[in-house]
């Protein structure tokens, strides 16, 4: 031993067996299998599209390659290729199955059988589907030719079968047959396609299909973990330089997992050493029947262990400790050591070495890396910025973890806990001393002093001055030790952080504090430690997209986060309606908007008869058409006035009008009247109108418009004493009256039905009633709202009359109004998107009953719907984009 206290080069290093407390190895579902299956399924879809829409190209490419080879494959290599194809289609899957059985991988054998059956079934199912429903499709012929070529042995498509078996055999420890099986299958496929025995799309589809079925079978039935465990885990810890005598798993395990105690016979040196020569010497000694470790004493590896052990070994060098209660050991360790745990590590352990020094071991596993990588990729696609930085490989993740820890130590943000790192092909371990302290997520609000909250802001301020960001500030990685706070786990941070990343740190801290100690104490701490402009700047960033999952779980309602934003801005009233920072490249609202637009275009193109529309426009008077279109625009103003009148909160008339314009495109995918109501509700919600009051207001707007229509009909009928030349069929009137009487009678006589209706309508009445009471105290609002409804109704009637006049066939104003009001109301009863179909039919029928020739009535209905429905789509789309961009809806 030298003066440094470290073993000298070439000096013997201590070796010992370690007690390992870990979950018992069990079959698990690997996310990477599901992801791979999704990719290959998409590949199948892509090949199908090429086969259908580029069949001539794929066939031409194959033909050109065959021509370039001067048909050598068909003449010289015909017999060898066919023999090779037959041998591989029969012996390759048989060899792989025998190899799996030889290594006693019985579960893998069952998985392979399930994958094979599903691959064959789906292959012939696809062929049946395309043959029955798309017999003339190019894909049908190509798929049929390939399956026929592949099925001459046992009537099974050997490409799908071999692909499925090789995929299953490639799990866990890959065998030699799995390694050289794929190249052989690829060679056979290429030669078979070039020889013309099968088509390229058919061969690719069956190969991808077998791979997909194999991946899905592995995911459904599970697979062995592909990470360092048992003795390999102990070896990895020793390679990192820790002479472990106790290793305890401290994660929250699933209910189906069970903890076990094992004695791991780790006979490796400490640290990273040259293993090549050592292993050669040990192999020679083993062949000579000697033990390199116990040659002098003759003692076994476990003579000094205080535990009773038993065989057989679940894996070489691992023996179960019978006298050890694994759960009791874990509880004891957690009582003494409970280090903060970050989200980057797949597994977490407490390691105690020979000197009773405790370390926190963070394990990075390749088989779990895909989850974090996909989450990071999705965040980078959806968000303009992201706080998490999961790397693609465990090597890169390990290096980033170590780099950020060393940077944080260098900046004196965290204490130097002695970084130890080691890695294999499938796992990496990062060990640091446990310095004590308690994570804040294990403390209640009273146990966290205000000084600790203020110290967190100080740590972040110092880190940001050094250019560092944390990226994952949450209670689980923040510890309280001796009255002081330590912010650990900087692996998700950045060394040269952008301003946005630093602001995200502050927003995460603000949300964490509010969730732990309440909004009042959190805001008070921010006001003590930050300037007023810094406090205000936190509000736009406080969005769920950048807040860690642990912190989000502390907020039981989205409104709590909104309340926190309000508290941060209330001290500066002029920015009380501060707009959140745009963090989403596309949000669910954007997806809905685009979807609405696509559906609207589809419905528009599918419902318009462009031939009739062209003939209609050619016959119409342009001046009357311009008058009708201009009149229809006043409906937006009328609807905005009604919404303004029945809302106690102040609504700008300009924004309210634009919302009504935007409702034009929403109406295309919702029944008549539902689309504008939903958009008005969203508008009121963004104006911070409570949801119950907003629902009551929107309901009143709908009821007011309906009441205005009824009043108009009654007034017109009383004023004329007749309904002009409009006479509805007596059968329809009689049916409506009888139906109304039956409904009213049922409600009065059937007690359960009456009680059910009362239960359903009572909440709505309770919501609307306060708003009605408020309106009774503001008669001017009632008049203003009624005026808005009148403007809207007159605008529709005027537009309808202008459309009819453009064909040179005017009607008396009373007859025109009655025709429109009755016909449009009847057409809107039938629930269809935007009333497409029923409204046109009702308007045409109403004009015909009023004495207008059918051809003119139909043309008028088409032109009216063009001005009030289809023609409004561009205006509505622009308005919807405008409102979304400015966060008005």
Structure commentary:
With 889 residues, the chain is α+β, with helices and mostly antiparallel strands. It has four domains: 18-24 and 226-292 and 301-430, no CATH class; 31-221, no CATH class; 437-575, Transferase(Phosphotransferase), domain 1, CATH 1.10.510.10; 589-885, no CATH class. It has 33 helices and twelve strands. It is flat. It starts with 17 loop residues before the first strand and ends with a helix.
The geometry reads as flat
* Radius of gyration, in angstroms, nearest whole number: 38 Å
Secondary structure class reads alpha+beta
Main sheet record = 9 strands, mixed
- The number of domains: 4
Q: What oligomeric assembly is this protein in?
A: single chain
Give the amount of beta strand, in percent.
5-15%
Order of strands, widest sheet: 4-5-3-1-2-6-7-9-8
- On the 0 to 100 scale, the average pLDDT is 75
Strand segment tally: 12
Output the number of helix runs. 33
Helix content: 55-70%
Which residues sit in consecutive blocks of at least 5 with pLDDT less than 50? 7-13, 290-304, 722-737
N-to-C CA distance: 73 Å
